[in-house]
Amino acid sequence: CSSTRTSLSEVVREKASASAGSVICLSPGTYTGALLLGATRTADVTIQADGATVSAVEFAASAAHLDLTDVTIPGAVTIDPGASFITIANSTIRGGIYVDWGAHDLTISNNYLDGGYFGVWLDSENCAVSFGPANCSTVSVLPVISNVLIEGNEFQGPYGDDAININNYQNVTITGNEITGVVENGQHDEV
User: Fold this and answer.
1) Which of 20, 59, 87, 95 has the fewest beta carbons closer than 10 A?
2) How far apart are CA 129 and CA 17, in angstroms?
3) Residue pair 184/160 in contact by the 8 Å Cβ criterion
């Protein structure tokens, strides 16, 4: 660890000024509230939380070049529109990972995911294409979610719908994941 912090606010402050390659460690413990990660960076900074439980995590639209590892998250992880160069690894996530339109260069690897409506949801849409989403009420074209690697994760259902649901994407690789306990509930459960 380059530094060790004992509160979520300390992690957020440290991340803003950390140099490339820094590893900011969060001390073991249970932290209530969401860890909000933003700030555009040009080189990776890792937030490592071995032994820590954080209620939820949100990567803001401005988030770039951030790695999150070794954390238990009873809630969801949200990656906001346009966030980029994000890695989520070696973590337990009970509320799913939700990725909004335009996010790119993402790695989701070696996690245990056992909750949420979806395990991982890449959520964008393009209602202007043939055979686009059936529920489009307007001709909405959102930026694609691109350059995503989903690998080596363990998905343990049941989920509200799918273990992995992807929409309006480009260059997504899904490999080496173990998916169990997904139950058909009348909504065409997919991977």
Assistant:
1) 20
2) 43
3) no
Q: How confident is the model over 23-30, as a mean pLDDT?
A: 96
Residues 95-145: pLDDT tens digits?
999 999 999 999 999 999 998 889 999 998 877 776 656 666 666 788 999
Q: How far apart are CA 24 and CA 184, in angstroms?
A: 41
As a whole number, mean pLDDT of residues 42-69 equals 94
Residue with token string 């969060």: 26
- CA–CA dist 43, 40 (Å, integer): 9
Tokens of 104: 């790119």
pLDDT of amino acid 57? 96
Provide the phi-psi class of 62: left if phi over 0, else alpha when psi is between -120 and 50, else beta: alpha
Per-residue model confidence (pLDDT) at position 115? 81
E-assigned strands of the chain?
Answer: 3-5, 23-26, 29-37, 45-59, 64-73, 77-79, 84-89, 92-93, 97-100, 104-109, 112-113, 120-123, 145-151, 154-156, 164-166, 169-175, 178-180
Cβ(38)–Cβ(63) below 8 Å: yes
Q: Which distant-in-sequence residues (6+ apart) come within 8 Å of 188 by Cβ?
A: none
